[in-house]
Design brief:
The chain is an alpha/beta fold. The chain folds into two domains: about 5-115 and about 245-310, FAD/NAD(P)-binding domain (3-Layer(bba) Sandwich), CATH 3.50.50; about 125-240, FAD/NAD(P)-binding domain. It has seven helices and 19 strands. The strands form five sheets. Strands 1, 2, 5, 6, 7, 8 and 19 form a seven-stranded mixed beta sheet that branches. The protein has a five-stranded parallel beta sheet with strand order 10-17-11-12-13. Helix 1 packs parallel to helix 2 (about 60-75) and helix 1 runs parallel beside helix 7. The longest helix is centred in the C-terminal third of the chain and has 22 residues, at about 290-310. The radius of gyration is 21 Å and the shape is elongated. The mean pLDDT is about 95. The structure holds NADPH dihydro-nicotinamide-adenine-dinucleotide phosphate (NDP). NADPH dihydro-nicotinamide-adenine-dinucleotide phosphate binds next to helix 5.
Length: about 325
């Protein structure tokens, strides 16, 4: 029967979770890591990763995560499939209940549950995922040099992604459902000043089309009014930028979150408001959201765990 008591429980298996596992296992803390619903995290749904240091020829997202996982296992991380469904941070040691009903007791916890990009919910988004549909311009924009792309959303992220893509692609559409951008004035101005960005206001996406790869999108403007009009745009890439949802639902009774649900870190470390509970990666980072920055946060959380445990002894 597997051990259900640990000095360090890591929840989540993206770059932050695996890096925390590499560090804590090398420090002889015998961590248990629960991989969650999507082992490997968001990177397993991207294709080529070219900006993670150490891979001069690039690496696929799934391969990168497999490498990180193997590195953590090499030092003895107890890697477990399964989802943590609830936690109790009032108890000491802390308790985490797994979907099979088992309970893990842990002296420290690193929350690395990540965030999930929001999608529109169209069946075509799944069909063309990795074949033209992406939720990360920084990850995939490079593949659309001199091509035509569309970005969905009218917030700061959408503007940032559109601006980033406008330096690579020849033409960028922004598909905005309202008649205004929600983004900050400065971002709006940058978008409007860019000659190769065209903002399609009052426009929604009905579907996507293409033989093998994405070739275009079916759109509708002024939906539900007498000005309603359906039309198509020819595009090679379709980028979702309608927000991310941090995976913090099971922690909200204990952990301080910001107004959009991200974990608030205490000061410059990875500490949360509960001593002994730390957070790393996108779950606590609405700003950078990169694999390498998440990995860096995982390292910091592991070092904070070590220090915390040493201080307890
Ligand atoms: P936001 O929630 O600010 O914006 C989401 C955008 O997506 C809105 O335009 C929204 O439309 C649209 N949208 C949402 N759901 C749908 C849907 N189903 N169909 C079509 N459109 C949809 O999210 P962001 O990720 O842009 O930003 C999150 C936070 O991070 C914000 O506070 C932002 O200011 C901040 N941020 C700051 C940056 C910076 O300062 N450089 C960079 C990036 C983010 P609608 O307006 O109609 O609701």
């Amino acid at each position: 029967m597997s051990e259900n008591k640990t000095k360090c429980l890591i929840i989540g298996s993206g770059p932050a979770g695996y890096t925390a596992a590499i560090y804590t296992s090398r420090a002889n803390l015998s961590p248990i890591l629960y991989e969650g619903l999507q082992p490997g995290g968001q990177l397993t749904i991207t294709t080529e990763v070219e900006n993670f240091p150490g891979y001069p020829e690039g690496v696929t997202g799934p391969q990168l995560m497999e490498d990180l996982r193997r590195q953590a296992e090499r030092f003895g991380t107890d890697m477990r499939a399964g989802l943590v469904t609830s936690v109790d941070f009032n108890k000491k040691p802390f308790e985490a209940t797994i979907e099979d009903g088992s309970v893990i007791k842990a002296d420290t916890i690193i929350i690395a549950t990540g965030a999930s990009a929001k999608y529109l919910g169209l069946p075509d988004e799944k069909k063309y995922n990795g074949l033209g549909v992406s939720a990360c311009a920084t990850c995939d924009g490079f593949f659309y040099r001199k091509k035509t792309v569309a970005v969905v959303g009218g917030g700061d992220t959408a503007c940032e992604e559109a601006l980033y893509l406008s330096n690579l692609a020849s033409k960028v559409y922004m598909i905005v459902r309202k008649d205004y951008l929600r983004a900050s004035q400065v971002m709006q101005k940058r978008v409007f000043d860019k000659e190769n960005i065209e903002v399609l206001f009052n426009t929604n996406t009905l579907g996507l089309y293409g033989e093998e790869f994405l070739e275009g999108a079916h759109l509708v403007e002024h939906k539900g009014t007498d000005k309603e009009r359906e039309f198509d745009i020819t595009i090679d890439g379709f980028f979702l930028a309608i927000g991310h949802k941090p995976n913090t639902d099971i922690f909200r009774d204990f952990i301080n979150l910001d107004e959009t649900g991200y974990i608030k870190l205490e000061g410059p470390t990875s500490a949360t408001n509960i001593p002994g509970v730390f957070a790393a990666g996108d779950v606590a980072d609405p700003r950078y959201r990169q694999a390498i920055s998440a990995a860096g946060m995982g390292c910091r959380a592991a070092l904070d765990v070590e220090k915390y445990l040493a201080e307890q002894e």
